[in-house]
């Protein structure tokens, strides 16, 4: 006859265990009798071992239910089930008294049992409850909580590991990219040297701007690509510098919102000498600049003028037209009129200026002389061009030429009358 195991509480006069007190001792029946620890019997040890196997198996079964069990956990679950089946078969063969299937055995107050950090002075006796009773439900809830925590921790560790791995890969990729950039562009090593990449973008760009002082750039006023400069050709114009600055900012420091801007039309400027070696101010014997165009860099509303190593735009006097005007009065026949009333004209590779009002006087004077002395016009023009080649901002020089032309004109008229 099939028997079911029942483990009864001992109710002797020495000690009892209270369910509500979480396995705490009740007062002794005989207060004068000293409490002693009694060793557990083989059956009691076997019951406790069975309970432990059942509890661990429950956790693994819940993991399997949630799909989070590992291959090692599945192997452990199979082993635990085999051990519990072996106990059951041995009890049946020995004719032990069963009142309940051992697979349903549940500890009283399992939460306290799990949280206890040291053994009780008196071992608690195990009691078999009804299937699905509150103690079994408590055990299942505790086991589910433990499994969920394990599952959550496993996922969290996995996500942290994946994030760390991803970050490490990204960092290595970034370092490799920067090393390739510096390998491709030798001058870039000098430009990024000493710059703290942890700074704000604005501060990084300010330091990059100042590093352009250190590369021995030669300002030739002739355009070369910015990458040509970065590869080692240390010369070019303002556009060369602006493109090189943009390339380093974007491709090395990863600052993408850096743009090259320009003034397209010619203009005069009172800007200071550039700190780069090479060409100096090219107008009025080194007093001003005259540019056909100008390039600089902007980022988030900030200006980085690499030619002048400045963070502000130069003051300009814009030409009224993009292409030069023609005039026989100018040494090379071409000139520009500016918005602030100046005339700019060439003299070889340099430029000169004169006031527009003075230029208009010369034109009127030549037009009037043409009516009287057409045959001497070329000589008069030559005298005016000689004046302009010395710089046309001296009124006394102009007055001298005009008086000389008028005297020549008067002499010619007088001579004509005498010959008649």
Show the helix and strand layout.
Elements: E1 17-18, E2 24-25, H1 42-66, H2 71-94, H3 110-115, H4 134-184, H5 186-192, H6 201-211, E3 218-219, H7 226-230, E4 235-236, H8 238-251, E5 258-263, E6 267-269, E7 277-278, E8 289-291, E9 294-299, E10 302-304, E11 316-318, E12 325-326, E13 334-337, E14 342-347, E15 350-355, H9 356-372, H10 377-389, H11 395-419
Parallel strand pairs: 3-4, 3-7
Antiparallel strand pairs: 1-2, 5-9, 6-8, 6-11, 9-10, 12-13, 13-14, 14-15
Mean pLDDT: 76
Give the assembly state of these chains: single chain
**Major sheet:** 4 strands, antiparallel
Q: Count up the helices.
A: 11
What is the overall silhouette? rod-shaped
How large, in whole angstroms, is the Cα Rg?
50 Å
What tags apply to this protein structure?
3-stranded parallel β-sheet, 420 residues, disordered N terminus, 4-stranded antiparallel β-sheet, alpha+beta
Task: Kindly summarize this structure in a few lines.
The longest helix has 51 residues, at 134-184.
Describe this structure in words.
The protein has eleven helices and 15 strands. It is 47% helix and 12% strand. Helix 1 runs antiparallel to helix 2, helix 4 packs across helix 5 (186-192) and helix 9 runs parallel beside helix 11. The longest helix has 51 residues, at 134-184. It is rod-shaped and about 150 Å long. The chain is α+β, with helices and mostly antiparallel strands and 420 residues long.
